Amino acid sequence: MAKVFHRLMKVDEAVELVKRHLKSLSLELEYVALTEALGRILAETVVSPIDYPPFDRATVDGYAVNSTSLLNADEENPVKLRVVGEVKVGELPGLEVKPGEATEIHTGAPIPKGADSVVMSEYTKRVGDYVFIYRSTYPGENIAQTGVDLMVGETLLRKGVVLTSREISVLAAIGLDKIPVYRRVKIAVISTGCEVQPPGSPLKPGRIYDVNSSTISCMLRELGCQPDILGIYPDDFDVLREVVGKALENYDVVISSGSTSAGFGDVIYRVFNSLGKPGVLVHGLLMRPGKPTVAAVINGKFALGLPGFPVSAMIAFHMFARPIIAHLIGLPIESPLKIRASLPFRVKTGGGVKTIIPVSLTSNHFGFFSAYPIVEESGAIWRLALSDGFIECPEERDFLDEDEEVYVTLFSKSIKPADLVFIGSHCLGLDILFECFREPLTMKMVNIGSMGGLLAVKRGEADVAGIHLLDPETMQYNIPYIRKYGLEGRVVLVRGYARTQGFIVKPGNPKKICGFKDFFREDVTIINRNKGSGTRALIDEGLRKASESLGLKFEEAVKRIRGYTFEAKTHSAVASAVTHGKCDVGVGIEAAAYACGLEFIPIAEESYDFLILSDRLQKKPVQLFIEILGSDMFKRVLMERLRGYRSLKETGSVVYR
Amino acid sequence: MAKVFHRLMKVDEAVELVKRHLKSLSLELEYVALTEALGRILAETVVSPIDYPPFDRATVDGYAVNSTSLLNADEENPVKLRVVGEVKVGELPGLEVKPGEATEIHTGAPIPKGADSVVMSEYTKRVGDYVFIYRSTYPGENIAQTGVDLMVGETLLRKGVVLTSREISVLAAIGLDKIPVYRRVKIAVISTGCEVQPPGSPLKPGRIYDVNSSTISCMLRELGCQPDILGIYPDDFDVLREVVGKALENYDVVISSGSTSAGFGDVIYRVFNSLGKPGVLVHGLLMRPGKPTVAAVINGKFALGLPGFPVSAMIAFHMFARPIIAHLIGLPIESPLKIRASLPFRVKTGGGVKTIIPVSLTSNHFGFFSAYPIVEESGAIWRLALSDGFIECPEERDFLDEDEEVYVTLFSKSIKPADLVFIGSHCLGLDILFECFREPLTMKMVNIGSMGGLLAVKRGEADVAGIHLLDPETMQYNIPYIRKYGLEGRVVLVRGYARTQGFIVKPGNPKKICGFKDFFREDVTIINRNKGSGTRALIDEGLRKASESLGLKFEEAVKRIRGYTFEAKTHSAVASAVTHGKCDVGVGIEAAAYACGLEFIPIAEESYDFLILSDRLQKKPVQLFIEILGSDMFKRVLMERLRGYRSLKETGSVVYR
């Protein structure tokens, strides 16, 4: 059976191959009203039919004069001129200004004959029919010359320009009210798969919601295309052949998702090949995520099969579809902005394929960016939504190094501004804390464990780090680590709250777990936590003691434990693993066990505190954070809502400075 | 008369003052369909109602196994497992996988009971009811765990988030099809002034088109607001009082433009003050452009009077209105992105007020940005449309220095990508050249004269510079300057075309101008060109010889010339100045004179050539540029369309390397 991809191609090669087989669309032109042209692409080069300004205009309120009348005027020696009239806006002046004369003139009014400059009213004193002028002028002063901005016949905007408010202002200035723009590219969007169900109704067993239809169509709209969602179709050759075939007749491009891998039921590449020539050109990209991508040219039209996993589909869209669509439109699509950043820690990647790693950007003391990798699983939609962009690790590399310089391709056209950057250990208490904020703060939250948070504070990248690190020597939480990492004097530690950690097991505790010793039992499978998390430190400390009491070396002992290498990243993931029978026991907080209806055997109360750089205490969002942490409201809601959480007398106070 | 602004305020102070008097709007919530939520602001915090993935899923096609079955499997020692079934997507598996067994499984299908990992089909060989597996697995391998992305009860998106395609993907993943978003802020847009006429009909004398209504409403839509254009009203207290008063009842915010300065007919501040308390808070900003800005709070609503000049209105909108609207909405508006750049030359600014200078960004050899100031007049709409953003010169500075580091606030959320950067002298021939491009190239054109172009090439910021620089010693064009500026070996000079320069005068040459000597006559006013332009070099060379022949020193002689200090920046501006009687004579190319129906007295033919860095010759757009320059089509169209232009035998050839 083992079907394989025809030949995995490098992304850039694949883009070029498809482009070679695709001619640009000749998009028709349509006229839209001026303000409706915003965001559209100009379809004709615009040459100015008028001068702008259309006449010499005063740029200030004052008096129009001939500069020769004022040759030696200054504050000591004002020149007295006779006022011969007034020029208002919107009318052509009939009068003429002779030497020794002046006219009142308003901002925007045409300059009368004979005048070559305007003196601002601030430098004048009117007395009856005369005006005293306290400074001289030079020819052209305070006058916008006819056509100084736009000249008749000048090329103003070239076709192909994306119209923003600034281009609209130019079109308005020359009096256009119907703007020639290219019609939008029409793209059919199809989802495939028997497991895919549209949002809006309760999820059936074994099903997942259709993420790709709406996401792909929104990505297309962000590019200025006009997507139509055609629906969800089963993974069936005949059905898909009909749907895709009809879509190819009615649309400029067809994009499906799902049914693209080289496996059992995946039919898109057969469908594409059956519909016309040259057919499938790309079946599999040397890229992760995004590998199972199929691209075809069918009788001159572009048909694209994106992977079914939403994050894979999104990455393949950005890396592969976007440049081809740009080529197809034959018009510039704004390139995504790239930003230089450094990696805060080493990242392993899959050698041999290009690896795309979404990252969250934070800036450090010196205004440089750090790029925190925040997704590993290709299904991690939510984390993708939290990221600012992605980095590319080339095919020939196996890792990217700590502090290595990388280029981040931004997803949006700007970095999401964050008023408060939180990096550190994941905690449900934080959700409650942020709910208590009245102000509309934007938060950036990077969950990479206590140790990651501490290091991020050290590098100045986090405003606040949430940490719960047990020092095995002193059996004290958090404070010893400030000294260990040389942060004395640079940081404060604000007391958070206590959380009860313990064993999470199925209701009734079927395997009778009562201590870390049970982890070594042959009939027990555990789930571990990720290295660097405070909970992992607690687990390893417990296992160290347990292995000692069994007379074993720690390193040897843990090899016996089933599931020791299987690491969950959050308390909730531990609880979920127990719920679904993937393991018998894990260590986590009581609230996570309670939320899943699991049994909980307490081990210890730990202190979840907040590490903050001293100089960030002046930041208002940081002050607010501390204020809310210490508020009665937060303490009450925390204990009401989260089992095993306890606010402390010192909650919200600085306990180490 | 001389009315004055009440008190000019610093922009930041003014923003804070208005914010103190304005409460945030409590925007109502409305539900929109999933894909219609793109770009809207989420009005409720979204907590996940499901786990995602909702079940443990295979992430590859292959065989679901228990890792203990494959403990020592490798390429040499495959393990043979019995295939007990097949798990398809969209159904819950009824079967169980025991040690020694495997099931076929498809990407996205639920993991059957008993299996803890999936081995990819690439590492398997199927033989009848059995499968040989050539590697071991670890628990969890190729499985997306239930809830590893989203967990029930987890806070996914906080209210106040702007929904991009990535947030839409999260909302789809949890099955939402109606999304709670804030209603858009409704803003009334009013233009004032008797001279203002709507686009779409021929311009009447003394009138200008209404630029502000459409531009302001597009800027508001770019911020996500919902503007309504109410029309153009005369500068009349009673009329405006009624219009603004009614608008304040029906809209969240009212924005007018025009009628804001402290002069004769400007009534907006009286209108605002008459409509409620506290009334006008700001009347005049310490900023250029944008000074005549009026801001009021009227019975709790925000009323803003922007300046009438479009560029002033746009700058005041960005600097002043934007942060207040953000405060009013009470939601984060994406902050404009700022980019570090350096100034290519010294810029004088108006001390005492904050000066806003639009700039065009180009990058140099090392990827750093240079910010070319490209607007000086506050009416220069078109040049604003060409700029990428603006820099701010603080109140206390009189200039910004060459090479000084500046921060550029981007207008759009990204830098417009340019395939070809042209910096140098303005030439009508270029418009024709670019019309001949078939490919949709994006061009960045910065017109700062020949000398500026030469220096931009030296700094690596321009791909191509258009220059026409006469060396008075050798009387040769352009090549001597390559040596003078130490560019030998680093650049090539590509021959452009010849243009005839001469005196531009009114039809019939009423002042009988026949040489530079006439510039010294008392009855003659000239218009000069900007320093650094090739034409200025030609003028000064001519005047030097003329003053010598009159027995005068050049520096003294030019002081006698009327209009010598009045500098136009383009050939067209010179022709326009002559047309409108602002001066009697200027020097420029024949084509400009011809376009305005003026008389032309030739002085000399000059060589307009293209300076290109040698290493840029590899850039495809540069190659295209040279190719088209040398094409017969271009040469033909050039001579057909532009009087006084002549293509040369060497046009399009490298004449210096």
**Number of helical elements of chain A:** 16
Strand content of the residues of chain A, in percent? 25-35%
Using the CA coordinates, give the radius of gyration of chain A: 34 Å
Largest sheet entry of chain A: 10 strands, mixed
Largest interface chains and counts:
A-B, 156 and 156 residues
Output the structural class of chain A.
alpha/beta
Helix content of chain A: 10-25%
Strand elements of chain A, count = 40
* Cα distance spanning the termini of chain A: 65 Å
Short summary:
Chain A has 657 residues and is an alpha/beta fold. The first copy, chain A, has 16 helices and 40 strands.
Care to describe what's here?
2 copies of one chain form a homodimer. Chain A is an alpha/beta fold and 657 residues long. Chain A has 16 helices and 40 strands. In chain A, the strands form 10 sheets. In chain A, strands 29, 30, 31, 34, 35, 36, 37, 38, 39 and 40 form a 10-stranded mixed beta sheet that branches. In chain A, strands 7-4-6-5-9-8 form a 6-stranded mixed beta sheet, with no helix packed on it. In chain A, helix 1 packs across helix 6. The longest helix of chain A has 20 residues. Chain A starts with 10 loop residues before the first helix and ends with a strand. At the A-B interface, strand 8, strand 11, helix 2, strand 15 and helix 3 of A face strand 8, strand 11, helix 2, strand 15 and helix 3 of B.
Keywords:
homodimer, 657 residues, alpha/beta, ten-stranded mixed β-sheet, six-stranded mixed β-sheet, 16 helices, 40 strands, 24% helix
